[in-house]
Amino acid sequence: MNPVWLTAIGVGGATVIGAVIGFCFKKMSHRFSDIILSFAAGVMLAAAVLGLVIPSLEYGGRFALAITVAGIFAGAVCLNLIDKLVPHLHKLAGVDAENHADSNLGKVLLFVMAIAIHNLPEGIAAGVGFGSGDTSQALVIAGGIALQNIPEGMVIIAPMLAAGVSSKRTFVIAMFTGLVEVVGTLLGYFAVSIASAILPFALSFAGGTMLYVISDEMIPETHAHGSERAATYTLLAGFCVMLITDVLLG
């Protein structure tokens, strides 16, 4: 159980690390932000495919393909519903990310809440990896999620500070978003440990949530400010880093 607890703390703590860095870069340029998020997207893409979707096919037995495909779409639909319940900051505020001063506190907190809710299935993905019994693969998944959480923690700091939230409260809120991921990790681990029969579906479901976040949020955001070429190559770099890590650990 110790590796699971350590991973849960590490995955959640990555958000806090990102928040600390965010205080140092309160006014990141769009290009810098896009490059960081693109690298994280590449890392998540590799973790989703190599650590979740492919193992789902391996553990699925006779109906592996059907279970995996169903799980991917179920995970995507789940996050789609969450997106409808908790709108994004840019949809609520109707302003560009550079004009945070025009946003009110309620809108910013809803944005942070959306990140916190998205962290739950990401944490579940890390926990499900350990539930499969493949510790090395689970560490690859958790590492990918943790790397993605660092820039995520960075980008929530500036909006809250600009909206008038104190530095202390901003940091506490950022810590809360990381705590959600800790809870998700433990939920994922115990759910699969109790019912190993759901493992293939749980793996692909978690993979679907990550693929949805990459396609619906991260790639469009990184291609919206004129840095498409740099973002594309950085995404490929992130993917290759996780691919190399997976091969070396395997």
In whole angstroms, the N-to-C terminal distance is 21 Å
Number of helical stretches of at least 4 residues: 10
Number of strands: 0
Radius of gyration: 17 Å
Percent strand: under 5%
The main pleated sheet reads as: none
Determine the mean pLDDT: 77
Provide the number of structural domains. Answer: 1
Order of secondary-structure elements: HHHHHHHHHH
| Helical amount | over 70%
Secondary-structure class: mainly alpha
Give the overall shape, derived from the CA principal axes.
globular
Folded structure, characterized:
The protein has 250 residues and is an all-alpha fold. It has 10 helices and no strands. It has helices at 2-24, 30-59, 64-85, 89-93, 105-131, 135-155, 157-162, 167-194, 199-222, 228-249. The protein starts with a helix and ends with a helix.
Using brief descriptors, characterize the structure shown.
250 residues; mainly alpha; globular
Quickly describe the structure.
With 250 residues, this protein is mainly α. 83% of the residues lie in helices and 0% in strands. It is globular and about 55 Å long.
Layout of helices and strands, plus pairs?
Layout: H1 2-24, H2 30-59, H3 64-85, H4 89-93, H5 105-131, H6 135-155, H7 157-162, H8 167-194, H9 199-222, H10 228-249
